[in-house]
Amino acid sequence: MLMEQTFEKLNALKLYGLRDGLSEQMEQASFASLSFEERISMLVDREWTDRESRKLHNRIKAAKLKVQASMEDIDYRASRGLDASLMRSLADCRFVSAASSVILTGPTGTGKTYLACALAHQAMRRGHSALYFRAPRLFEALRISRADGSWARLLARLARTEVLVVDDWGLAALSDAERRDFLEVAEDRAGTGSLIMASQLPVQKWHELIGEPTIADAILDRIVHSSYRIELKGASLRRKRQGNPSGEEGQAES
Predict the structure, then answer these.
(1) From the CA atom positions of the chain, what is the Rg in Å?
(2) Is the pTM of this model over 0.90?
(3) Are the C-beta atoms of residues 102 and 90 closer than 8 Å to each other?
(4) CA distance 197 to 41
(5) What is the full DSSP assignment across 69-136?
(6) Number of folded domains in the chain?
(7) Model pLDDT, residue 77
(8) Mean pLDDT by 10 residues, the chain (254 residues)
(9) Residues 25 and 150 in one domain
(10) β-bridge partners, 166
(11) Is the same domain home to 19 and 111?
């Protein structure tokens, strides 16, 4: 009866990891040989791990990444100009702490989306928040927020996010409203948050894409000049044999 009350209290306190660890210790005789201090330490570790796992799950759910991707599953065998040493350097997520951008460019199907999502996922594993948008959806969300009065709240949400992924950048030339909105997004993130941008369009053509020279200069100054550049090349990974559906080749995106 006493233990039932203990478990009820642990549930009420949302100490689910500690609850499960205690249950295991009660069921397995091997724990009896451990000291009190060792068993307490194991219970605290179990609760810590459980909380960190739930935090990561919530971050991943909120990020709404297009594909499930991880740094461990990146395919370096394909001839697409992907620098393994650079990716290993980015995996430590110092670019997030430095509020630097990562720009992925290259033909369709070379894995830009996968790499962008893998970097965002790695950042979330390191405790950072992330959010994924395709550029057309981002601009649509900003347009709607202007109409319904939630524009400032959306900008604040984007600014709070430590890693913002903008995929399919440059599918169409920006309208005046879009380039002005994106300048606000870029300005809010300058020195405070990271951008991961994926585009089929080479960076050299972004100025023309944005359109108005003054705004284009301002946007590119905040994004490009202090960025890590990954320029992919080669044939589409989608055309390769689907030998590993759980890996990058099996989930190749733009």
Answers:
(1) 23
(2) no
(3) yes
(4) 43
(5) --GGG---SSSS---HHHHHHHTT-HHHHTT-EEEEE-STTSSHHHHHHHHHHHHHHTT--EEEEEHH
(6) 2
(7) 80
(8) 76 79 80 81 83 89 94 84 91 94 93 96 96 97 94 94 96 93 93 94 93 93 90 72 53 59
(9) no
(10) 133, 197
(11) no
